[in-house]
Amino acid sequence: MKALTLAATTMIAATAAAADTPELVVYTYDSFVSDWGPGPQIEKAFEETCGCDLKFVGNGDGAALLARLKLEGERSDADLVLGLDTGLIAAAKETGLFADTKISADYALPIEWTDATFAPYDWGYFAFVHNKDMTAPANFKALGESDAKIVIQDPRSSTPGLGLLMWVKDAYGDEAPAVWEALADNVVTVTKGWSEAYGLFLEGEADMVLSYTTSPAYHIIAEEDETKAAAVFDEGHYMQIEVVGRLAGSDQPELAEKFMQFMVSDAAQSILPTTNWMYPAVMPSGGLPAAFEALVKPENARLIDADKAPAIRDEALAEWLGALSQ
Amino acid sequence: MAGRSLTISPRMGVSAAALVVALILGALIAVMSRAEVGGGFVASDWAALRFTVWQAFLSALFSVLLAIPVARALARRRFFGRGALVTLLGAPFILPVIVAVLGLLTVFGRSGWLNIVLEAVGLPTVSIYGLHGVVLAHVFFNLPLATRLILQGWQAVPAERFRLVAQIRMTPWAVFRAVEWPMLRQIVPGAAALVFVICLTSFAVALTLGGGPRATTLELAIFQAFRFDFDLGRAALLSLVQLVVAGGAAIAALWLIPAVSTGGGQDRPHMRWDGKGLWQRGLDALIILLAAIFLLLPLCALVLRGVIGIGQMPASVWSAAAASLSVAVISVVTMLVLALPMAGWVASKRAGGVEAIGLLGISASPLMIGTGWFIVINPVMNPADLALPVTALVNALMALPFCLRILVPRIRETVQDYGRLSQSLRIEGWPLWRWVILPRCTPQLGFATGLTAALSAGDLGVIALFANEQRTTLPLQMYRLMGAYRMEAAAGAALLLLIMALGLFWVCDALGRRYATA
């Protein structure tokens, strides 16, 4: 009986303490919250300063995040959404659920950042990753003519797959269907998401896989494996810029704004390269890890404006389906 | 007829069936209620429908055709390790798709074992990608299920029949025609319909091995409508088409099933006097060997890979395993509450059009059910708080048709054999279940529970929609490891999942057999 009373008192005390600490809920994609992702370290670093309880909720990938937000509407518990990319910004704004932000930073992005609602926290170039023992083609046309086998992601179910679609469309415009027709016999298969595709590549099912220029850094740093490289294409590389935004319905608007500021601060930015394996949006004071400096750097960064993305996306998807269905 | 329908009250069965229909149609209506943009059925959807039906047809055809000789060989032979083999053969069916696909690729892939051998002997290599790859994977998944279902049919034939046919010295062919064929006619259409319906909702298999957008299935179109376009009207329409096609197939197949009674026996363990010739023993051994190689090599590949990775697994994998285990337990309980009254109801009727209701569970897109219930729950409470119960419920729905297929024939037999006696003794309601029906179907119950537990432990469907980090299940954790480039640790988690699914299945199945009143 005494134990029970003690337990009850402790619980009441714990509940009271929890009620004093504001809770900040951040919706993000799955890999962000995993033990090896940035989530745990970011949470620890932010909680040291905020006097709050930061809670990450993992949910599929960027597209899934947006779908969940649309489902929940204004009832959402989320204060912030972290992990949408520029391709999804227009659709996200259309929901009317997001609030503008005042934060700014000295971004190290290849483009100028002007969006008033979202803040970028990391970015990367899409690229085909291959084993160093092969000579990689120098562009999509050369790839189409070669007999190199590639595995890509379905644009209907994954953000990298969609990125590739936009990449080809941006580089070739009306010529894109022809490029895809030439690529058709190089495509071993199309997968649901990045994990499956990368898995197939590591199994030896393909010579190249659509991933990021930063992927080899993981192999070098975490596995001391220097056999992987990313192919540089002379058309330039499409970028994925990952952003964080706060919801208008948040009951912690100031804390949410503080979190966005934290995400572009040195503390968070220095965590991202070796956990999310992307480039930081703001150069950390300690610079990048050596393996990142050794990565290939595309000269030409491609990105379709966020507001034009939805229309181009639909057109490119129809062309892609047409070219690969034959 | 009258005697049979009187013994089991249909009330509970009707309630359970109504609940299943309500859960699925409720989700559909919820999705429709939120639909704003109404998209029609476009040309690419027809192409998706054609591909979906065609690959499911081929998969069902090959799975069942191949399962018949395997089940026959297993039914006729007693050998050391047979029980373990039968359990192991069930493994592919309960594995998460991507785990099984990676196993298949290690054997049949571009640089897989088969191609290494082919290259070494100077033969052209084979590609697993395309329609044949999709069918191969589906046969890999469903051959064990079909084999188990048909094997159950063989075991339901009273042992006395085989004694009789042996006494009158019937040839194996005559035995097949007189005893085995009538049983097959009863079991096979249902098994084929089941495999067909399972393959209709194929998503990750068709996507990964299909080779490109040619291999688009309805399920992918549904996924796209939900996640890519967020066009709930289109998602609802596509879900409805899938329900109609799969449900229609199920009803059609169930109508074809003739009501054949296997007659009363005394449940003695099987002794077979037929098929003792050298030629037949050799053939059976060859068939079992080939099936074992086909099904076990990819599993061996997973084990080999997983053993290396198991040391690299983080502790969070274990808590994810615990979450998966609790999902499995809740699913089993939910399944029993739904399946037993339904099976009793179906079994009391002549032939089961109502069994098709059970098939709704797998014809419905899990994403549709999940999203629909998300819409229903969201205004009342945080859906994440219900992540585990909803996952368990949907898993129970998914397992329901399998469990009905397993339980119904045995209960039907029991009702036919003991219905009149029970009625004259006025045993009905719970005592009828307690004293007559349940003791006679413990092996079937064990099998059904094992299957449900294993399937739920490996499920990656609904949890992904509802989850948050406190409620990570093992398959989800495996995906997160892959997403973080931790392929070796992911392989370790996959092995753990394989062990867990098989372990759950084995424990339930073994308990069912142990307490069988043989």
* Terminal residue distance of chain B: 28 Å
Total individual domains of chain A: 2
Whole-number average pLDDT of chain B? Answer: 82
Biggest interface, CB < 8 A: A-B, 57 and 56 residues
Strand content of chain B: under 5%
Would you report the number of β strands of chain A? 12
Report the oligomer.
heterodimer
Strand content of chain A: 15-25%
Fourth CATH level, the homologous superfamily of the largest domain in chain A? Periplasmic binding protein-like II
Computed CA radius of gyration of chain B, to the nearest angstrom? 23 Å
Helix content of chain B: over 70%
Radius of gyration of chain A: 21 Å
Short description:
The complex is a heterodimer of chains A (326) and B (518). Chain A is of the alpha/beta class and 326 residues long.
Outline the structure in words.
The complex is a heterodimer of chains A (326) and B (518). Chain A folds into 2 domains: 23-123 and 240-293, Periplasmic binding protein-like II (D-Maltodextrin-Binding Protein, domain 2), CATH 3.40.190; 125-238 and 297-325, 3-Layer(aba) Sandwich (D-Maltodextrin-Binding Protein, domain 2), CATH 3.40.190.10. In chain A, 43% of the residues lie in helices and 20% in strands. Chain A contains 15 helices and 12 strands. Chain A has helices at 2-20, 30-33, 39-50, 62-72, 86-94, 140-145, 159-172, 176-183, 194-202, 215-223, 253-263, 266-269, 273-276, 290-293, 309-324; strands spanning 23-28, 53-58, 80-85, 98-99, 119-131, 150-153, 187-191, 208-212, 228-230, 237-247, 279-280, 301-302. In chain A, helix 7 (159-172) packs across helix 15 and helix 8 packs across helix 15 (309-324). Chain A starts with a helix and ends with a helix. With 518 residues, chain B is mainly α. Chain B has 23 helices and no strands. Chain B is globular, with a radius of gyration of 23 Å. At the A-B interface, helix 2, strand 2, helix 4, strand 7 and helix 9 of A face helix 6, helix 11, helix 12, helix 17 and helix 22 of B. Chain A: GO terms for molecular function: thiamine binding; thiamine pyrophosphate binding. Chain A: It comes from Sulfitobacter noctilucicola. Chain A: InterPro entries: SBP, ThiB, ThiB-like. Chain A: Residues 1-18 form the signal peptide.
